[in-house]
TrEMBL record:
GO biological process: chromatin organization; DNA replication; establishment of protein localization to chromatin
Region (Disordered), start-end ranges: 211-241, 255-287
Gene3D superfamilies: Ribonuclease Inhibitor (3.80.10.10), YVTN repeat-like/Quinoprotein amine dehydrogenase (2.130.10.10)
Species of the source: Glareola pratincola
Keywords for the protein's UniProt record, in alphabetical order: Centromere, Chromatin regulator, Chromosome, Cytoplasm, Cytoskeleton, DNA replication, Kinetochore, Leucine-rich repeat, Nucleus, Repeat, Telomere, WD repeat
Domain Leucine-rich repeat and WD repeat-containing protein 1 LRR: 7-200
Organism placement in taxonomy: Eukaryota, Metazoa, Chordata, Craniata, Vertebrata
Repeat positions for WD: 409-443
Gene Ontology CC, one term: centrosome
Protein name stated in the entry: Leucine-rich repeat and WD repeat-containing protein 1
InterPro entries reported in the protein's UniProt record: Leu-rich_rpt, LRR_dom_sf, LRR_LRWD1_dom, LRWD1, WD40/YVTN_repeat-like_dom_sf, WD40_repeat_CS, WD40_repeat_dom_sf, WD40_rpt
Compartments (UniProt record): Chromosome, Centromere, Kinetochore; Chromosome, Telomere; Cytoplasm, Cytoskeleton, Microtubule organizing center, Centrosome; Nucleus
Pfam families (alphabetical): LRR_LRWD1, WD_LRWD1
SUPFAM superfamilies, sorted: L domain-like, WD40 repeat-like
């Protein structure tokens, strides 16, 4: 039996009423109502209802036929809503709130702004200007793109006389193609864009061509987000501790001599003409500086050029059920950290989508994982979770789509230098700390109320502070490699062993400056280029080593704490600086290595012409140091007329397909380059 009766509605009316048709304001909050409790037959009698409060209930959606023709104000806060499209049945709605519905995102905001033409206030904010942009500018742009796609690729496919089967076939192909190829705006709005593109495409087929739209609906397809255009998004600085929010009041620092040209940027002075013209070397990459953002400022200060930025990682693509989501060739949303904040940035538009702050923290590292979480009615859905850690030794767990930091793990009593998730176990997180330990945690999967249980599975004992960690790609559940203050170490991390606290299994030695082998050196850069090739620095200044994991480490070897010589495949020419903590990264799909220097430059190495030889010729080492394919020079940036100098590049990361390059600096500037 439904919880809602005529008597309850009359009692809950404000003021209390004797007739349903006389009720103008109704409070149905805190009744544990579910969707099935909203009886359309009963609600259809509320002909003059203008204000409805359904907050603090258990609604996951709205019935499609509540028939409230005069509804103007609706409060749905603190429910479990997953979709907003049914709200279109309330065309006169002017004020709508649905805060603390964790499954609703920015895409849903845009959907209601389009569907409800009279909406003025959304979650307490005046959205009049933005809503007009969504309804007019956004729609005009997308309509133009959809029409152009039809004209270019599909109009001529339809014969002059066509059958119903041909109509159905052309519709299916067109809807799939148009959702894949027509893009507009930032990746954070990709779901809204697909939704509108499909709607516009169906209208085009119906209105212009008279095609029947009553055929079975096709599932929404995904698209590449490679357009340079952007739409506005509602944003607000998040000042509260332990709260994620939108953020817009950041500073964009513009190069004083910046031009929008696809320049092949200059290389370093060390390269000789002979080196530059070798057949082995790949051509320079045309790249363009897109954005210079100052979004990690303490207190949002424009004068902050001291906050150090340390880590960035691109958001993974979600697996939408059984259908992989090829929405983009790679994600263009990146998480960055430094100082008291973590930011999510759309690389194409330069928009800071989210900003998370903890006033007493200094964040050193971020990492993504994708958890399959149970939502209402025991259904499962994949969500990206961001882990962030730093000086306090605490890991913050953030459900980004819900704008919610749902928990923390007090992992270490000393600062955490770096974190990373297992590629095979979605809940397994490694934390490397200044306490000279690397811990493996199972962070658990939060339930629908965000209750979760974290447990420590393993502790790896190091002789010095671990700075960088990497799981061996061919056996990520068995071996972990770490670059530490005192050398490069390997541990067996297999969980079927009873021993929970483990010493290192091997330490690697490298050539010293005088050519002798040594294990004593700081390794502040470590990454795998492919399944076997390890890239590390800095055993000596001016050099980055590439070495073979399989040839250096014998997995059948007995005993712990073995000293092994790294089998060097090549050396990369790099800056002669002895400054530490300028780390490196790799783009395995493109065989690229990136490393910044002490002068604000990014050294890029295309090693695609070398990797095959390293794989096929065992023990063969490149005779000479490999020079950079290209060096991206730091542009001349000015703020208040003063030129920024002494820029250190702390980290450089590309997206998986090397479309964007994100550069983190010592002067609180995130630089974003785009490969053209």
């Amino acid at each position: 039996m439904s919880k809602i009766t005529t008597e309850l509605l009359l009692e809950r009316a404000v003021p209390r009423s004797t007739r349903l048709r006389k009720i103008e304001t109704l409070n149905l909050s805190k009744l544990q109502l579910k969707t099935g409790d909203l009886d359309p037959r009963l609600f259809s009698r509320l002909r003059h209802l203008q204000k409805l409060d359904l907050s603090d209930n258990l609604l996951d959606k709205f019935p499609n036929s509540l028939t409230l023709p005069d509804l103007r104000v609706l409060n749905c806060n603190n429910n479990k809503l997953e979709d907003v499209t049914a709200l279109k049945q309330f065309p006169l709605l002017e004020e709508l709130t649905y805060e603390n519905n964790v499954y609703l995102t920015l895409n849903d905001d845009y959907k209601v702004m389009f569907l409800l033409q009279n909406l003025r206030l959304l979650n307490g904010k005046d959205i009049t200007k933005l809503a007009n942009h969504v309804r007019r500018v956004n729609s005009r742009k997308l309509t133009s793109k959809v029409t152009a796609h039809w004209e270019k690729f599909f109009r001529d496919q339809l014969p002059e006389k066509y059958t119903a089967e041909q109509v159905k076939s052309i519709k299916k192909k067109f809807l799939k193609s148009v959702q894949t190829n027509v893009v507009y705006g930032p990746s954070s709005l990709s779901e809204f864009t697909r939704w509108r593109v499909k709607m516009i495409a169906e209208e085009l087929l119906a209105c212009s061509l008279g095609l029947d739209l009553s055929t079975d609906p096709e599932p929404e397809e995904t698209m590449d987000e490679n357009e340079e255009e952007s739409t506005e998004s509602p944003s607000e600085a998040a000042e509260d501790v332990d709260r994620v929010g939108d953020f817009s009041s950041y500073v964009t620092v513009t190069p004083s001599k910046r031009k929008r040209n696809h320049s092949k940027l200059g290389s370093g002075n060390k390269r000789s003409k002979t080196q530059a013209n070798t057949e082995e070397e790949a051509e320079d990459v045309s790249a363009e500086p897109l954005h210079f953002l100052q979004c990690h400022s303490k207190g949002n200060s424009r004068e902050d050029f001291k906050t150090q930025l340390w880590s960035c990682v691109f958001e993974p693509l979600l697996d939408c059920g059984a259908r992989k989501d090829p929405i983009m060739s790679s994600s263009r949303t990146v998480a960055t950290c430094g100082g008291e904040s973590v930011c999510l940035i759309d690389c194409e538009t330069g928009t800071v989508l989210k900003k998370y702050k903890v006033a007493t923290e200094e964040f050193f590292s971020v990492a993504w994982t994708t958890l399959t979480m149970v939502i209402s009615d025991s259904r499962k859905k994949s969500h990206n979770i961001l882990a962030a850690a730093g000086r306090r030794g605490i890991v913050k767990l953030i459900h980004v789509a819900a704008d919610f930091c749902y928990g923390e793990i007090k992992a270490h009593k000393k600062p955490i230098a770096t974190v990373c998730f297992s590629p095979t176990q979605e809940t397994h997180l490694f934390t490397a700390s200044y306490d000279k330990r690397i811990a493996l945690w199972d962070i658990g999967i939060p339930d629908c109320d965000y209750n979760f249980k974290a447990s420590q599975l393993l502790v790896l004992e190091a002789l010095s502070i671990p700075l960088r960690i990497a799981l061996v790609p061919t056996c990520p559940d068995q071996y972990l490699l770490a670059g530490c203050e005192g050398g490069c170490f390997a541990w067996n991390i297999k969980l079927d062993k009873e021993q929970k606290s483990r010493p290192f299994e091997a330490i690697f030695q490298f050539p010293d400056e005088d050519g002798s082998m040594t294990t004593s050196h700081r390794v502040d850069g470590l990454a795998f280029l492919n399944d076997d090739v390890v890239v590390s620095k800095s055993s000596k200044p001016g050099c980055i080593y590439l070495w073979s994991w399989s040839r250096s480490f014998d997995t059948k070897g007995k005993g712990c704490q073995r000293t092994l010589s790294a089998v060097i495949l090549a050396e990369l020419e790099w800056s002669p600086t002895d400054l530490s903590y300028l780390t490196l990264s790799t783009c395995p799909a493109k065989d690229y290595v990136f490393c910044g220097d002490e002068k604000g430059s990014v050294w890029m190495y295309n090693l695609s012409n070398y990797t095959a030889a390293w794989t096929s010729a065992k023990g063969k080492r490149s005779d000479r140091r490999i020079p950079p394919t290209q060096i991206l020079k730091w542009p001349e940036l000015r703020e208040n007329g003063e030129q920024l100098t002494e820029v250190l590049i702390n980290n450089v990361v590309s997206d998986p397909t090397f479309t964007y390059l994100v550069v983190l600096t010592s002067v609180n500037i995130t630089a974003i380059w785009k490969k053209s």
